[in-house]
Amino acid sequence: MTPTNRRGFLSDVGRGMLAAGLGASLANDLGFSTAFAAEASGSIPLGEYAALVELMRSTPAEKLQPQLAKMVLKGETDLRKLTAAGALANAVTFGGCDYVGFHTAMAMLPALDMSRLLAGGRQPLPVLKVLYRNAQQIQNVGGASKTTLEALHAADHASDGDLGVQIRDACRKVDVDRGEKLLATVGDSPLDAFNALQPAIQDDLNVHRFVFAHRTYGLVGLLGKEYSYSLLRQCVRLCADHERMRIEHKQAESPIRAILPKLLDQFKLAGKSLGKRDPGDAAVDELARTIYEGPRERAAEAVAAALADGIDPEVIGEAISLASNSYVLRQGTDNWRTHGDSAGVHSSDATNAWRNMARVAEPRYAVSGLIVAAYHAGIQSAPFKTPAYPTDEHRALVKAQDGAGLLAEAEDAIRQNDQGRSAAAIAIYGEHGYPVDAVLELMLKYAVSEDGRLHGEKYFHTVREEYRTIRPAFRWRQVVGLARVTASAYGYNRDDQHGFRAAGYEDACKLLGVNA
To answer: pLDDT at position 222, please?
Structure first.
């Protein structure tokens, strides 16, 4: 049997198995008898998710959503399994190298987490929203005919020396094949593989490689270690793709490649035990200002010095997070959009990723990762010179003082895209000592219903997590930032056109029998 005929034969078998699994009537309604493109015989293992993955790769979003909603309502699947299948469908199709694709992958775990915060019939909405986006982009690139990530049998590739450095160097040479084969030598420990990826992840200053690595490692936790290589090798591809684009555009190498080893040597951080010292609120706030005000080299040096001084990495992460939040709060009115790929949202999501990676990575990578995080925290633009939101003028617009009234004012401000009044209402609410849960419930409502320019789910999750892990003196800054970003996002689609909800949201509400 020739390779072409073998592939066609396996494709026919796959179509028949999927049609049998879905039922002849449904398969015919969706056009599966002829719509399935040939599935590569070497496709990555899909296990129990195979039928769902092929359904998601072969079905237009507007046809897929009713089927997924029906399956959930009938108890034939659950949101965890749908998210896992969506992650695999994304990986097979994009392999970590599609802009909308990797943004969608990064939103999957946050969406699943958001679903747990919703009541009853509304729980599927965040997951269905992200899977709708996933299906749209899969179809945009060719559906099931587009298979980027195929099986790799290369565990025999020899490694000599520091595996992480070798993977990094393969990415620098845009040698994806070598990088993936080196990663395959790690064995069956997802954490060992994640550590081996750290030098490549830290080798350039791009928010997507940071957040994608963090979220992909999280997806390994969702699916299980048998899927870890298939998922984590996408990080090799993304890092190599960034290098390819740098070379093609004749851009200089990232300065972090020179700065990081210099600081590690200057402060004698190689092999140093991590400290546990907490210098107190004032010192953390001062370190945050230093990082925010920059320049970037000074920010990185300040963090390196703090690590050398024995300050707890968790405390240093707080300071970097507060610096990133300053971009959200200080962006001026000349830049009207604070949601989506804005300086503050990008910086906050990147820092949140680094804080989480530092918690699980080897100490040497926790140290270098926090230095990279500090340098990156100011890379979006020069520090904004405008005062932080809310200003006194914003506060003067708020009339309510009780908790319910302040929440109502915040919601009205969101619907008016009034970033200042929304921020002011929530700041005053926090100052009165009212509980944060009601605010997060309000913001969750709009994180689900609005497009968010591909960032809504991630940023909501970032704020919720940072609120829990930052000391009480500063945690409300995060929630005020979310209020501002939520007001910015209301009604805007990915193309910054006003008057739109998230794609597929209203249809999903109808399918689930809940109010939009």
So the answer is: 97
CA 285 to chain CA centroid, Å, is: 26
User: Going by C-beta distance under 8 Å and a sequence separation of 6 or more, which residues neighbour residue 144?
Assistant: 35, 36, 37, 39, 54, 57, 58
Which residues have CB under 8 Å from 102's CB, separation 6+? 94, 96, 208, 212, 234, 238
Specify burial of residue 276 (Cβ count, 10 A radius: 0-12, 13-18, 19+).
Answer: exposed
Tokens 């750290």, located at residue = 198
Secondary structure letter of residue 273 according to DSSP: P
What's the pLDDT tens digit per position in 364-381? 999 999 999 999 997 655
All residues at 6 or more sequence positions from 291 whose CB lies less than 8 Å from its CB, including other chains: 299, 302, 303, 319, 320, 323, 374, 377, 378
Judge whether 240 and 174 are in contact, CB under 8 Å: yes
Phi and psi torsions of 277, nearest 5°: -75, 135
Give the integer Cα–Cα distance in Å for 328 and 460: 13
Amino acid 379: pLDDT? 67
Residue-wise pLDDT tens digits, 335-346: 689 999 999 999
| Contact predicate 422/487, CB 8 Å | yes
With a CB cutoff of 8 Å and minimum separation 6, the contacts of 356 are: 214
For 289, counting Cβ atoms within 10 Å of its Cβ (0-12 exposed, 13-18 middle, 19+ buried), the class is middle
Q: Can you read off the two tokens belonging to residue 321?
A: 């997070």
Q: Are 417 and 488 a contacting pair, CB within 8 Å?
A: yes
Residues 365, 481: Cα–Cα separation, whole Å = 29
Angstrom distance (rounded) from CA 342 to CA 320: 17
pLDDT of residue 1: 36
d(Cα 375, Cα 356) in Å, to the nearest integer?
17
Evaluate whether 217 touches 186 at the Cβ level (below 8 Å): no
Q: 41: left (phi > 0), else alpha (psi -120 to 50), else beta?
A: alpha
Q: What is the pLDDT of residues 218-255, one digit of tens each?
A: 999 999 999 999 999 999 999 999 999 999 999 999 99
Q: Angle at CA 50, nearest 5°, toward 209 and 119? A: 70
CA distance 31 to 442: 40
Q: Look up the pTM and report it.
A: 0.91
Could you tell me where the DSSP H helices lie in 74-189? 79-94, 99-115, 125-140, 163-172, 176-184
Give whole-number Cα distances, 67 to 27, 86, 287, 508, 514, in Å: 11, 14, 51, 11, 17
Residue among 291, 304, 313 at smallest CA distance from 264: 304
